[in-house]
Amino acid sequence: MIYDVNTIPADRRIETHRTIPFTPAQVFQSFADPTILATWWGPNGFTNTFHEFEFCDNGIWRFTMHGPDGKDYANDSRFLKIVEPSLVIVNHECAPWFQAHFAFHETRDGCEIDWQMIFENAQTRANVASYAGDANEQNIDRLVAALS
Q1: What span, in angstroms and rounded, lies between the C-alpha atoms of 107 and 94?
Q2: Model-level pTM?
Q3: What is the DSSP secondary structure assignment for residue 48, as one 8-state letter?
């Protein structure tokens, strides 16, 4: 099921918005190309090993995030919907479960990224919110660096 972000209560969502000086096509390509995505996905200090990457509707994305603390974080996700160059919707299918919507809008200053994380309940959202806001901003910082 793909959630309509406009109908989900704020206590079940984390929103990140930023305009960066690149086109929506460039930002979309940074998701579509696993070599590029692996360089910027995750907050500062994290690296990634991709095990399976099928960038298509209902495609599998399995990877391990390697933290700066030396811990490994297994991730099982599924690309639910891909609309080039404007939308990527992903289910994070392991704990904590969430659905992420990445929308890319052209602006005169580049690309506005509208990143919505939708959680099953307010408690899970609250738990993740304690770190996700800063982590999402770091993710976008790393995206900008990868595209520069």
Answers
A1: 34
A2: 0.94
A3: E
Q: Which of 15, 16, 48, 14 is nearest to 146 (CA)?
A: 48
Contact 68, 45 (CB under 8 A): yes
Pick the CATH number of 14-147 from 3.40.50.1820, 3.30.530.20, 3.10.580.10, 1.10.8.60: 3.30.530.20
pLDDT in tens, 64-117: 999 999 999 999 999 999 999 999 999 999 999 999 999 999 999 999 999 999
CA pair distance 32, 9, nearest whole angstrom: 30
The tokens of 133 are what?
Answer: 């806001």
What span, in angstroms and rounded, lies between the C-alpha atoms of 40 and 67? 13
